[in-house]
Amino acid sequence: MVGEAGGLARAAVVGTGLIGGSVLLRLRDAGLDVAGWDPQPAVRRRLRDRGVAVSDTVEQAVAGRDVVFVCGPLPTLPAMLARVAAATDDRCVLTDVGSTKAEVATAATAQGLGRRFVPGHPMAGADRAGLGAAGADLLDGAAWVLCPGPTGMDAFRRLTALLVDVFHARVVPMSAPEHDAAAALASHVPHVLAGALAGTVQRSALRDAVLALAAGSFADGTRVAGGPPERTANMLLANRDRVLVELTAVGAFLDEVAAALRAGDADALTGRLAEARAARATLCARGFTAHRREFPAGADHAGELAYLRELGAAGGHLTGCRVTAGAVGYTAHLPATPPLG
Amino acid sequence: MVGEAGGLARAAVVGTGLIGGSVLLRLRDAGLDVAGWDPQPAVRRRLRDRGVAVSDTVEQAVAGRDVVFVCGPLPTLPAMLARVAAATDDRCVLTDVGSTKAEVATAATAQGLGRRFVPGHPMAGADRAGLGAAGADLLDGAAWVLCPGPTGMDAFRRLTALLVDVFHARVVPMSAPEHDAAAALASHVPHVLAGALAGTVQRSALRDAVLALAAGSFADGTRVAGGPPERTANMLLANRDRVLVELTAVGAFLDEVAAALRAGDADALTGRLAEARAARATLCARGFTAHRREFPAGADHAGELAYLRELGAAGGHLTGCRVTAGAVGYTAHLPATPPLG
C-alpha cells in the first residue's frame, strides 16, 4: 500500500498519544515498518503489548528511518525536533501533527531543517487523550494541512504521497501563517466558544436544570470542552494573536445579535442568522471539481509553491502526488461553487 | 401501547412541521387515532398521501379529540390555542411544543385555559424544517419539559403518562419561567454562539481556507446555525431577556479567557477550561437514582406541584405516572452525583 512516489517505507512515530498513536497504528496496518517511542514508560509497555517495535530512546527509534512523525505536546516540539534531526539521516523526512504551525516552522528553519521538515496538521481529534483513545481510523480521510517551503518541495511531495496512500488524506497545502490564521476560526475559536458555554453553565445557579434539558445544540456546542484543559491551553497560547483577533470578530458578531435582540428587531436578527446559515450551507453542500497539474520536478519550485498555496487558500486539497521522470503531477480538487455573498 | 393513566386515545396535531409531524407519526405508529392539520394545503396533501386523517379546517381536526398538540411557529401559538380551545371539549387536554414557554403560558392563562393547557417542550430538533424532516423516532427518549400549573394537575398527569408511554420521554417538570431560564443556556444561547461562529467565518476573507480545514470542533459548533433563520429568531425573541442575561454571562467568560490568553497566563487559561470541562464531564457521566412518590389524586395539589418543580430544578425527570383509586404515583430519577465544584 505504500505510495510509489512516497518511498517512505521505514517510519517512526515519536509521542504516541491520541494523534501519534493513531498515526502509528495506521502506518502499521498499511504494512510499513514502523517504530514507536513515547516519553512515558507505561505507554511504551502498552505499545509493546500491542506488538509495536518500541525503543527505549528517541534516538534508537528514529535511527535509519525514512520519515519521522513528531507528535508530542506543542511546547515540546522544537526541542524534540532537534533531537530527532540529530539522530537521523539528512534524507529522512520530518513532520509534526501540532495544531499550530508558525512556531514549530520557525524553530525548524532556525535549526536548518527547512529542506526536510514539513509542518503538518491533521484536522481530526477526539475529546479524550492518550494512546487508549487512538485508533487506526481516526485520521482516515481527514483534511491534513502540510506547509511546503521553498527548499523542502521534495520532502513535501513524498509526504503528500504517503498521506494520500496510507490515510486517504485530503492534503491542504498552506504556509504556516496561513494555516494558523485559518485554524484560529476553524478550530481554536470553536474550542474557546465551547469552553465559554460549558463554563458559564458550570457557574450558573441553574446548572442542574440546564443539564437536564441539554440536547443537540448544547451537546454539540460543548463537545470539545471535554478535552484536556492543558492541551487546549497550549493550542490557544501557540496561536495567541490570531485567536485574539478572531475572538474580537466573534465578539463583534455577538454584539450585533444582542443589539438586534435587545431592540426586538426581527429583521436584523434574521439577517445575522442568515449570514451564519450561508457559511453552514457552503460547508455542507460543497461540490469539488478535480484537475491535474504537472510541474518540472527538479527546476525552480516557485511556480509549484505558488500553485499549492493558492489551492489551499481557495479551499482546495490534493488527493494525489506522483513523481515520474523529471515531473511531479498533482491531483487536486477545488470547491465547485463560487463563494456566496 | 396507549398509557392506561393517560386515557388520551384520540389525538390531533395542529401544525405538522418538523416537530408536529414527528409527534403525529409517532402517535400513529403507537396505535392512537390521530388527526392532522397544517395551514399549508400542500402539506395537508402530503399527509393524506401518507395515510393520515387530515381535515380541511383546524376545527374539524380537533373536534371530539382527547388531546391536541399545537405545533406551529411560536408567534402563532396564542391565537391558534384560542381557536383549538373554542373547538374542543373542556376535557380535551391541550399542549404545545414551542421552544419558549412563558409567553404561551401567560396567553393560555389569560384565555382561561389553565385547567387543560400544559405548556410543553421536547428537547430535540434538527437543522432542517418541515414535514420532510420529521420522523417517528425524532423525539424518542427525549427530555420533554412539561409545565404543571396549580389548576392543571389532572391534565399534566395524563399528558405525562402519554408521553412516557408513546415517546419514552423523560418528562422534566418545570414552571414556565424556570424552563425559559434553563433553556436560554441549554438551547437558545448555543444557537447564538453557533451563529456567531458561522457568521464570522462567512464574513472572513479566509472563509474558503477555514471551510477547507473545518472538522469536528467547527462542524459541531456550527451545526444548529444551519436551521431556518426565522425559526431561530422567533425563539430568541420570545425569550429575549433571559437570552440577553446569559449572553452577558458568556461574554464575561469569553473576556476572562481572552485576558488570560493576552497575558500568556497558562494557569488562568487552564483554570477556565477546567471549569468548562467539569460541566461537560457531569453531562456525559451523570448517573441517576430512581425513586417512587405518591400523592393523593384529588386533594390540594400544592405538595405535588412543589415536588415536581423541585425535581426538575434538581436536574431530575419522570419516567412514569399512574393514577389509581385516589392516588397518583410517579417514577422519578434524580442525578446521583452531587454537583461538582
TrEMBL record, chains A, B:
Prephenate/arogenate dehydrogenase domain ranges (all copies): 9-291
Keyword Oxidoreductase recorded: yes
InterPro entries in the record: 6-PGluconate_DH-like_C_sf, NAD(P)-bd_dom_sf, PDH_C, PDH_N, Preph/Arog_dehydrog, Prephen_DH
GO aspect biological process, one term: tyrosine biosynthetic process
Keywords: Oxidoreductase
GO molecular function, one term: prephenate dehydrogenase (NAD+) activity
Keyword field contains S-adenosyl-L-methionine: no
Record family assignment: Belongs to the prephenate/arogenate dehydrogenase family.
Name the record gives this protein: Prephenate dehydrogenase
Organism listed in the record: Micromonospora sediminicola
